[in-house]
From TrEMBL, chain A:
It comes from Ruegeria marina. SUPFAM superfamilies: Ferritin-like. GO terms for cellular component: cytosol. This is Ring-1,2-phenylacetyl-CoA epoxidase subunit PaaC. NCBIfam families: PA_CoA_Oxy3. GO terms for biological process: phenylacetate catabolic process.
From TrEMBL, chain B:
It comes from Ruegeria marina. This is Ring-1,2-phenylacetyl-CoA epoxidase subunit PaaA. Transmembrane segments: none annotated. It comes from the Bacteria. SUPFAM superfamilies: Ferritin-like (SSF47240). It holds the Pfam family PaaA_PaaC. GO terms for biological process: phenylacetate catabolic process. GO terms for molecular function: phenylacetyl-CoA 1,2-epoxidase activity. One of its GO terms (cellular component) is cytosol.
Length: 253, 325
C-alpha cells in the first residue's frame, strides 16, 4: 500500500464515520422526546454532515480521479464504506442514540485533538474546525447519558441496556492496522490504540456518574474500518440515502 | 399563514377598561404580558399563537420526510438547517404563548388530543424531491405574506417572535425557490417532478390563507385588536400576484387554467380552491391528518421516559446542592 492509498483509506474512515452517523442522527428530525432535543439532534447531524463534506472532498482530491464529496457519498456501495460498525447500528430508542453518540463523541474528540497536530496541513485544518463542534457534542451527549443513567429506574435500565448493546462495537475504534501504521509513519494521524487510555478514563468517569456498569467483556465486532464485513443495516441506510442519485444518474440537484 | 380560522373569543369586560385598552392599540402601543388585557384578547391570542407553534412542529414532518433522501450533502445540510429552524420557531412561539398563562405542555396536550389545530397545509404529503423546493417557495412564501404584517401585531412577545421568524422564513423561501429552479432547469424527469409538486401544492397553498372574506366569521374583532392585520382574500391575492411571475420565470405550466392577468383590477384572476376539500382537511380527513397526529403522539409517548428521567436527575442534583449548603 502506498502512502496515498493509505491516506485515502484514512480519509474515508473519517468521512464515512461522520456521514453515516450524521445520517442516523438526522433520522430523528421531528420525532425527538422534547423540542430542545430535536433541535440539538438536528444540530449535531448538521455538524457531522458539514465535516463529511470536508473529509470526503479531501479524500476525492487525494484519490485524484476527479470525484467530489457527493460522488463518494452517494455512488459507492457498502463494501467501499470505511466507517466503524458503531455508527451504522440503528438508532433504537433515544437512550441508545445518545449512548452511541457519547461513545463515538468521546473517541472523536480525542482523535481530532491529535489530528490538529497532523503533518498534513489540510487534515490539521479540518480537525481544528471540527473539534470546536465535537467539544460541544461530547459535552451534551455526556450530560444526557449521565442524566438518563442517574434518572428514574426505567431510564437507568434503558441506558444500561443501550451500553450493553453498544459496548462490543467500541473496540473497533482502537484497532490499528497497516493503514494506521502508514499514517503514523507519515505523521498524519496517531495510532488509534494510543487513544484508548484517555478514552477509558473519559468514558469510565461518565459511566460512574451515570451509575452505569461497563460490561466486563472487551470483545469487539470489527469489519467496518476495512470494509471486510459491515452490518446488515448499512445497505438499507445506503438504499435510502443514495436513491435519488442512483435512480437519476447524471442529474444535478 | 400558519393560523387559520382562529375563533375570536367574546369578551365581558368592563366597557371603560375595554375602551382604554382599545385606545392603546389604536395608538400603536404594544401590549405586554403584565398589562391588563381583555379575556377575549388573551384567549384568542393563545389559540392563534398556539396554532402557529403547532404548525411549526407538525410542519417538521413533511419536510423531515426527505432529509434521509436528500440528493446531495449540501441539500441535506440546507434541509436539516431549515427544519431545525422550524423547531426553533415552535420554541419561540410556545414561549410567547407561555407569557399569556398557558404552559407548553398544556398546549402540546391539546394538539395531541385534537383540541387544537395546526395549518391545513401540513396534512398534505411530500411525494417527490421537488416538493421540498415547493414547500419552501409556496408554503413558506404564503406564511411570510401573513407573518410580515404580524411583526406589527399589538402583542409585544408575538411581534418580537415574528421579527426573528420572518428573517429565517425569507431565507427558507429563497432556498426553496433555488431548489425548485434547479429541478425546472434540469432533466425531463426533474422537470416533471417540479411540475407535479407545483400542481399538487398550489391549491393547498391558497387554502393556507383561510376561507374567503365573505365566509370568514372571525376576522373583525381580531383586526380591531391588531392580532390579524389583513383579510384572507387580500393576502391570497397578494400571494397569487407575487407567485405567478415566478412560475413563468421557471418555465413551468400554470397550475390553474383560471390564472389570467386582469388589467382592470391590476391583479391576476385565479380559481378559488375547492373549499369543501379545505373543510374536509380541517375536520381531520386530509391525506395525512391521522399519520401526522400519530407521529406526534408517538414521539411524545416514546419520549416520556426521557423527560421523566432527565427531570428526576435534575431534582436529585438540586437536592444534593441544597444538602451540601
Amino acid at each position: 500500500m502506498t502512502r496515498d492509498e493509505a491516506f485515502l483509506q484514512f480519509l474515508l474512515r473519517m468521512g464515512d464515520n461522520t456521514l453515516v452517523l450524521g445520517h442516523r442522527v438526522s433520522e430523528w428530525c421531528g420525532h425527538a422526546p422534547v423540542l430542545e432535543e430535536d433541535i440539538a439532534l438536528a444540530n449535531t447531524a448538521l455538524d457531522l454532515i458539514g465535516q463529511t463534506q470536508m473529509w470526503l472532498a479531501l479524500a476525492g482530491e487525494v484519490q485524484g480521479e476527479g470525484k467530489s464529496a457527493d460522488d463518494l457519498a452517494f455512488l459507492r456501495d457498502a463494501w467501499d464504506f470505511r466507517n466503524v460498525l458503531l455508527v451504522e447500528v440503528p438508532n433504537g430508542d433515544f437512550g441508545r442514540t445518545l449512548m452511541r453518540q457519547f461513545l463515538f463523541d468521546a473517541w472523536h474528540k480525542l482523535m481530532l485533538e491529535r489530528l490538529m497536530n497532523s503533518s498534513d496541513e489540510r487534515v490539521a485544518a479540518i480537525a481544528a474546525k471540527a473539534v470546536k463542534e465535537v467539544t460541544y457534542h461530547v459535552e451534551r451527549s455526556r450530560d444526557t447519558v449521565v442524566g438518563l443513567g442517574d434518572g428514574t429506574e426505567e431510564s437507568h435500565a434503558r441506558m444500561q441496556e443501550a451500553l450493553d448493546y453498544l459496548w462490543p462495537y467500541v473496540g473497533e475504534l482502537f484497532a490499528a492496522d497497516a493503514v494506521d501504521e502508514a499514517m503514523v509513519a507519515a505523521g498524519i494521524a496517531p495510532d488509534p490504540a494510543s487513544l484508548r487510555a484517555d478514552y477509558d478514563a473519559l468514558v469510565g468517569a461518565a459511566m460512574a456518574e451515570a451509575t452505569l456498569s461497563l460490561p466486563k467483556s472487551d470483545f469487539a465486532h470489527k469489519g467496518g474500518r476495512n470494509g471486510r464485513m459491515h452490518t446488515e443495516h448499512l445497505g438499507h441506510l445506503l438504499t435510502q440515502m443514495q436513491w435519488l442519485q442512483r435512480a437519476y444518474p447524471g442529474a444535478t440537484w | 399563514m400558519y393560523a387559520q380560522m382562529v375563533k375570536s373569543e367574546a369578551t365581558n369586560d368592563d366597557p371603560e377598561r375595554l375602551a382604554a385598552f382599545q385606545a392603546r392599540i389604536d395608538a400603536g402601543e404594544k401590549i405586554e404580558p403584565k398589562d391588563w388585557m381583555p379575556e377575549g384578547y388573551r384567549k384568542t391570542l393563545i389559540r392563534q399563537i398556539g396554532q402557529h407553534a403547532h404548525s411549526e412542529i407538525v410542519g417538521q414532518l413533511p419536510e423531515g420526510n426527505w432529509i434521509t433522501r436528500a440528493p446531495t450533502l449540501e441539500r441535506k445540510a440546507i434541509l436539516l438547517a431549515k427544519v431545525q429552524d422550524e423547531a426553533g420557531h415552535g420554541l419561540y412561539l410556545y414561549c410567547a404563548a407561555e407569557t399569556l398563562g398557558v404552559s407548553r405542555d398544556e398546549l402540546t396536550e391539546m394538539l395531541l388530543d385534537g383540541r387544537m389545530k395546526y395549518s391545513s397545509i401540513f396534512n398534505y404529503p411530500t411525494l417527490n424531491w421537488a416538493d421540498i423546493g415547493a414547500v419552501g417557495w409556496l408554503v413558506d412564501g404564503a406564511a411570510i405574506m401573513n407573518q410580515v404584517p404580524l411583526q406589527r401585531t399589538s402583542f409585544g412577545p408575538y411581534s418580537r417572535a415574528m421579527i426573528r421568524i420572518c428573517k429565517e422564513e425569507s431565507f427558507h423561501q429563497r432556498q426553496g425557490y433555488d431548489a425548485i429552479r434547479k429541478m425546472a432547469e434540469g432533466t425531463p424527469e426533474q422537470r416533471r417532478m417540479a411540475q407535479d409538486a407545483l400542481n399538487r401544492l398550489w391549491f393547498p397553498s391558497l387554502m393556507m390563507f383561510g376561507p374567503s372574506d365573505k365566509d370568514s366569521v372571525h376576522s373583525e374583532q381580531s383586526m380591531k385588536w391588531k392580532i390579524k392585520m389583513n383579510t384572507n382574500d387580500e393576502l391570497r391575492q397578494k400571494f397569487v400576484d407575487q407567485t405567478v411571475p415566478q412560475i413563468e420565470f421557471l418555465g413551468l405550466d400554470l397550475p390553474d387554467p383560471g390564472i389570467k392577468w386582469n388589467e382592470e383590477r391590476g391583479h391576476y384572476d385565479y380559481t378559488d380552491p375547492d373549499w369543501s376539500e379545505f373543510y374536509d382537511v380541517i375536520k381531520g380527513n386530509g391525506p395525512c391528518n391521522t399519520d401526522r397526529l400519530a407521529a406526534r403522539n408517538k414521539a411524545w409517548d416514546d419520549g416520556k421516559w426521557v423527560r421523566d428521567g432527565l427531570l428526576a436527575h435534575a431534582r436529585k442534583k438540586a437536592a444534593a446542592r441544597v444538602a451540601a449548603e
